[in-house]
Amino acid sequence: MRKNFSLFVVFSVSVILLIFGLFLVYGCGTQPTGNGTPAAPIWTITTVTSEGDVGYSSSLALTSVGTPCIVYEVINPSSDINYTKWNASLATWEFQSVGNGGYYKELALTSSDNPRTAFWETGSAKIKYASSDGGPWSLSDVANSTVPYQHVHIVLNSSDYPIVAFTGKTSTTTVAVVAEWNGGSWDITSVESINVGLMENFALAIKNDIPALALIDVDNADLYYATKEGTSWNLMLVDSNQINYADPVDIAYNPVTGYPAIVYVSGPPVSGPGTIKFAEWNGSSWQFQTISSDRSDRFFSLAFDSSGNPRVCWTRSTALRYAVRSGSSWNVWNVRDASNELQGQDISLAIDANDKSHISFYNLESSANDLCYGYIP
């Protein structure tokens, strides 16, 4: 009897240790390495649609229950904008047409999870605002803009009114323009003193209904943080250490501290070595960290989890990257696994209420040119 009991104890302990080990390996979506550094997160990647050349400049947003919604471009035959949302009950993606001939857009969701987007329409050279409350999309004009193929940003205030940022031309420079819907018309202001050029050199965020911008001054290679006050903009210099105006920038607010953070590239313009940097305001000064000696070819996507930890996605030579801050350092991985780069571009990152990361991107694997969605279980 005593021998049987001992065998039972040994067997029970072994099972418990096995279960605990499996939890460590799979429970958080990463596999720990021998030295305690987390290995590459395990992504679940699916193709949303492969009908034509689709997925260019996608933007991802999650509903209040974590349902993924994506707005994206169909390049062929005519650069149309489509919207898709996952239908969990039918286990399928549902699709809608948003508009024709648009480029570089972002997606925002209202407090009722209804989608909103804005984009530059090629045929009319207008900035368009698009909305849907469950039915067909409705389009309206925001402003004229002669700056071609530009990136248009959108956020929503506490009344679900849209705030749209885009670029406009003065007689000598290209400036960031912000249009705020007041319920009946658009209130339009611009940051006249900063030449943002023709790249993705600015980004939009909002806090307490006040819009904010991260801007790269291409004339002086400086990075600025700008906030709206009345009808004017207050500028704060963030970094003047050879900011790369050929690479993108993104901005987000830390949900714990309420302070802004910006991700950008420092280094020679256009080509050569560069450093991806993270700047965060601490209430009195900007604090800087190096994320990677990599550099981004296209858009950054910056987001915070509920504990105030930042995560960043970007593309380097069509390889998708994902980084998470751990204390004062950053862990950087390929999207897919440690030894296998996933080829794509235009990656968009969102974090759900359970602090799980989700992405959408334009898949370039084997020239697939598909729209893909991924998440860390």
Would you write up a description of this structure?
With 377 residues, the protein is mainly beta. The protein folds into two domains: 1-30; 33-375, 6 Propeller (Neuraminidase). The chain contains one helix and 28 strands. A four-stranded antiparallel sheet has the order 1-28-27-26, with no helix packed on it. A four-stranded antiparallel sheet has the order 2-3-4-5, with no helix packed on it. Strands 6-7-8-9 form a four-stranded antiparallel sheet, with no helix packed on it. A hairpin with a 4-residue loop joins β4 (80-87) and β5. The protein is globular and about 50 Å long. The model is unreliable at 1-35 (pLDDT under 50).
Strand-helix topology:
Elements: H1 2-26, E1 44-49, E2 54-62, E3 68-74, E4 80-87, E5 92-99, E6 102-109, E7 115-121, E8 126-131, E9 138-144, E10 153-156, E11 162-169, E12 174-181, E13 186-191, E14 202-207, E15 210-217, E16 222-229, E17 232-239, E18 250-253, E19 260-266, E20 275-281, E21 286-292, E22 301-304, E23 310-316, E24 319-326, E25 329-334, E26 344-351, E27 357-363, E28 370-375
Antiparallel strand pairs: 1-28, 2-3, 3-4, 4-5, 6-7, 7-8, 8-9, 10-11, 11-12, 12-13, 14-15, 15-16, 16-17, 18-19, 19-20, 20-21, 22-23, 23-24, 24-25, 26-27, 27-28
Radius of gyration of CA atoms, rounded to a whole number: 22 Å
Q: Unreliable runs, pLDDT <50, ≥5 residues? A: 1-35
Q: Helix and strand succession?
A: HEEEEEEEEEEEEEEEEEEEEEEEEEEEE
Query: Helix/strand/pairing class, anyone?
Result: mainly beta
Q: Could you tell me the mean pLDDT? A: 85
Q: What's the β-strand tally?
A: 28
Q: Treating each run of at least 4 consecutive H or I residues as one helix, how many helices?
A: 1
Helix content: under 10%
The biggest beta sheet is recorded as:
4 strands, antiparallel
Fold-level CATH name of the largest domain: Neuraminidase
Distance between the termini: 45 Å
| Physical arrangement of strands within the biggest beta sheet | 1-28-27-26
CATH architecture of the largest domain: 6 Propeller
Could you tell me the strand content as a percent range? over 45%
Dominant shape: globular
Number of domains: 2
Main CATH class of the largest domain: Mainly Beta
